[in-house]
Amino acid sequence: MEVVLEMTLPRNAESAPLVRHTLDASLRGLGVTPEVRADIALALGEACANVIQHATAGKDYEVRARMDGARCVVEVIDGGAVVSTTGRREGVRANWDAPPAPPSAEHGRGLQLMRALTEEVHILDRVQRNGAIVHFEKSLAG
Amino acid sequence: MDFTVRRYGDRTIVAVSGDVDVGSSPRLRVFLLGLVEDGARDLVIDLGKATFLDSTGLGVFIGVSRRLGALNGELVFAGGSPRVREVFEVTHLAKVFALYGTVEEAVARRPGGVRTAGPSPL
């Protein structure tokens, strides 16, 4: 059985728990173990946090998740923004491509967590739409 | 996310329950810095009932720890599910912060001298 979830969410902080819990409920329904579900929830939360924290207020973002018995593929799509100053997008990339955060830094650990807990973590720029797609996958085999 | 605050002498224990994430972290920051503003210098964060912790929550803890460090105070942690503790491990913050198994251990530690190993507080 394959399950596909597509959510369009407002870029506010309350959307993050909503999308995490929605995906988690689907994974639970597929019988995925709590450990694997927790990895996916954290990676998804980090991807959403990145979008939300660099948000232009009032714009939406999308989350697409595809699950079958073997694999969960998630994309968080931050591409619907109206054009803003270019500096904002450059700031997002700089943040996510930076080396691991020094111990005293308050930011910069989201990608580190995603890469540690999931697979195939990619960030695809959407230059035409002034946004990015954060992609990750996770084996559901446990 | 909810907080429960208790005091043992000079030590302030803040039990955090629920999800600590991009949605709740700003409230956590305001709350903890408010305690520091009111004079708390020795904070124990009890993560025993924290159901989720992400990098935004870690960022709050680091910011509060730096603030306390400037005031000769300290922030330590107690409890936490294997998942919550893994977040500290993956980000290498388990080497920076003192994580105690229980609140009792965190409270009973020697005043001012916390760890037997590891780098200085932030």
From TrEMBL, chain A:
Signal peptide: none annotated. Keywords: ATP-binding, Kinase, Nucleotide-binding, Serine/threonine-protein kinase, Transferase. Residues 10-134 form the Histidine kinase/HSP90-like ATPase domain. GO terms for molecular function: ATP binding. It comes from the Bacteria. InterPro entries: Anti-sigma-factor_SerPK, HATPase_C_sf, HATPase_dom. This is ATP-binding protein.
